[in-house]
UniProtKB/TrEMBL annotation:
Coiled coil: none annotated. The keyword Glycoprotein applies. This is CRK18. The chain crosses the membrane at residues 290-309. It comes from Arabidopsis thaliana (Mouse-ear cress). InterPro entries: GNK2, GNK2_sf. Residues 1-27 form the signal peptide. The lineage of its organism: Eukaryota, Viridiplantae, Streptophyta, Embryophyta, Tracheophyta. Keywords: Glycoprotein, Membrane, Receptor, Repeat, Signal, Transmembrane, Transmembrane helix.
Amino acid sequence: MATKSCELVLCFFVFFVISFSAISVSAQTCDNTTGTFIPNSPYDKNRRLILSTLASNVTAQEGYFIGSIGIAPDQVFATGMCAPGSERDVCSLCIRTTSESLLQSCLDQADAFFWSGEETLCLVRYANRPFSGLLVMDPLGAIFNTGELNTNQTVFDIEWNNLTSSMIAGITSSSSGGNNSSKYYSDDIALVPDFKNISALMQCTPDVSSEDCNTCLRQNVVDYDNCCRGHQGGVMSRPNCFFRWEVYPFSGAIDQINLPKSPPPSITPPSPIANITKNGKSLLEHFQKIVLFCFCLFFLFFLVFVYLCF
């Protein structure tokens, strides 16, 4: 009897460990609020077809493409975009790998997006409805670095706020004409006294107005400040805008800026934790609650296991 009890508790323990591992969330944002489809249905086939040709369409249109395929209710709308200045083959690879990631992660969601990239930044989005020119604020994708700043937060906040505010003002007041990937784009740096350089990148999709771009980017900055203030960087992304900042230069940004010298980082930046939600509420708060609950559950299973088996 004791052996069976031990086996039962052990099974619960294994299930818990597997479930807990699911907390680590990928950066793909699959929207469950706008409908689903049946795998291998006409909609799914159209989705796969338009994403399979997206890379070639984006590179042929100088880094930005928006289009559709099929007839309602199976019509799929999609867009792809690379950061301005991206090499053709680098842009194509980014769009292809990002499209494949969405196909693998969003198995039946009719709306999804993913800002991604190693060598450059790129966006892939598909939906079951037209979205060109429409500002969409949900869902929100968020990633933050677990490392803490370990500096004067007041001084840091002044430089960080100045950097983000000036970037948004520059993007939305002097955007280039036409619908291309350079219309709403900026990367910049700032030197925080007694700390190091901080690097930032912002971009909006070129189909939205400058006012909508301003709204979207400002909300990204506010959401990061609400959830992740005091950490060493992070990402806030929405279907129409993207914001990333780090305490080190990163791929896809700051590649044409002469960086002022700063002391080398004392530690290697820790791996970020991804956390995706459907709204702009505090992501860190939700994550901490989940971790605390799982830890308590883990401890309870451990006590039961020890009591029954030893």
